[in-house]
Amino acid sequence: MNRRTTLAAALALTASLALAGCGGADGAPQLKVADPYMPQPVDQNMAGAYFTVKNSGGTGDKLTSVTSDLSKDITLHKTVGTKMEQVDSLAIPAGGELRLSRGGNHLMFMGLKKKPAEGDKVTLELHFATAGPVKVTVPVKAVTYAPKK
Amino acid sequence: MHRRTLLASALAAAAALSLTACNDDDGKPAAEVSGGTTAKPIVTLDSPIEKPDLVLTDTSGKKYDLLEKTKGHPTLIYFGYTNCPDVCPLTMANIAVAVKQLPPAERKDLRVVFVTSDPERDTPAALKKWLGGIDKDFTGLTGKFDTIQAGARSVNIGIEKPVKKKNGDVVSTHGAQVLLSSPKDDKIHWMGMQEATSDNYTKALPKIVKGQNP
């Protein structure tokens, strides 16, 4: 083995390591949901929830809908200035993330089956344009909870 | 560079690459850049402004003259709406946490007024129910949208008439700031920004109820 082949082999190893480490840097979106929370809602009419979706894949995806036993009416919202608007989907860029946070993008639940209390857990299923659905267990936090930025 | 070092550095690169590629597994973003300057969560105004001259309907359906009812009392005023899962309940709950920590006499002296920016949906009964989940001592006001908007405008709070979109979604506006007035001159001296936390209000309110800068 001369120097050139050794180097080539090592570089090939690099590529395979990077791939193995993340289950595919190219191609399909690779989604992972982090830091979910639902602030305890004020009443049974309405609640909000937040999380981050990270995409380590080479293709972008979109969050298109969310389902849960808590409510039949769950919509995606973005905040523009001091207005909140319903949107059909929220983009998750390739190699990037979609972040839902207080005062920004959020889920809106209407007509709750029951009012969740701090310490409860709510189960959601996230649906995407490309990737398969992802189940998320969301802890209910204090009404004033906001994670440190 | 001989063969061995070259190989070593190539392997180091391999390790580094696989690490970077998976860096976001720790649940936190690798780096986050926030705005250049940190805005103060509760701002003292250079020139105090008059409270909005609003005569509206309270949660029991009675006429409520804001200037008359809050005269001589430290007052917090916020424009928002109850069909709001995000900013409005957070703002009101942050204030509620701070208010609960005031001594009883000061708590009784303080007026917290929530004025709806979506009066069509926020009837006195709807406001009463919603505020009951936050602090039943808070005042909720509703009335004609044009009256509320004019009052908000007089204190530099922009709200827009709720618009119903084709998909049935109603787009409403909440005020960007909470207005805080002094019991000494009944003028608004402070503004709570959207970023203000319950801790910020907890620190500021004991001073504000005495008419002092936080």
Overall 3D geometry of chain A? globular
* Overall shape of chain B: globular
* Element pattern of chain B in H and E: HEEEHEHHEHEHEEEEH
Profile the largest sheet of chain A: 10 strands, mixed
Overall structural class of chain B, as computed from helix and strand content, comes to: alpha+beta
- Count helical runs of chain A: 1
Straight-line distance between termini of chain B: 64 Å
Portion of residues in beta strands of chain A equals 35-45%
Number of helices of chain B: 7
Order of SSEs of chain A: HEEEEEEEEEE
Give a brief outline of the structure.
The complex is a heterodimer of chains A (149) and B (214). Chain A is mainly beta.
Describe the structure in your own words.
The complex is a heterodimer of chains A (149) and B (214). Chain A has one helix spanning 3-22, and strands spanning 31-39, 46-55, 61-68, 73-80, 83-87, 90-92, 97-99, 106-110, 121-128, 134-141. Chain A has 149 residues and is mainly beta. In chain A, strands 1, 2, 3, 4, 5, 6, 7, 8, 9 and 10 form a ten-stranded mixed sheet that branches. The radius of gyration of chain A is 19 Å and the shape is globular. By secondary structure, chain B is of the alpha+beta class. Chain B has seven helices and ten strands. In chain B, helix 3 crosses helix 7 (198-208). Chain B is globular, with a radius of gyration of 24 Å. Chain B starts with a helix and ends in a 6-residue tail after the last helix. Residues 10-37 of chain B have low confidence and may be disordered. Classes of the chains: A mainly beta (149), B alpha+beta (214). At the A-B interface, helix 1, strand 1, strand 2, strand 4 and strand 5 of A face helix 1 and helix 3 of B.
